[in-house]
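Here is one chain, start to finish.
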Amino acid sequence: MDLTLPPRVTDRAFARLAEIAEMTGEHKSLRVAVEGGGCSGFQYEIKLDDAAPDDLVLEKNGQRVLVDAVSLPFLQNAVIDFTQELIGARFVIENPNASSSCGCGVSFSM
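Its structure:
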């Protein structure tokens, strides 16, 4: 039986969102969307945004991550995380639905 679950957000990603809110003085949600384009067919758009009526809202400790209804099927069972490496710090998506992804980490195919 194939279980489809909404994306999961790590504690590290929620903690980074809290840091951003503290630094900017704004309490915006993190929007994770999937759009056509990019070098592999689809690309992630990750930005600070306000909630829309049809969004899935994932919330913890007052921090919110939003996924719109169109993007949700592409993000089933995915993990939204925050990583800090020598090359920089960023939000990342670990997506089991992607059959391949680009080296940039933003583009993928299914």
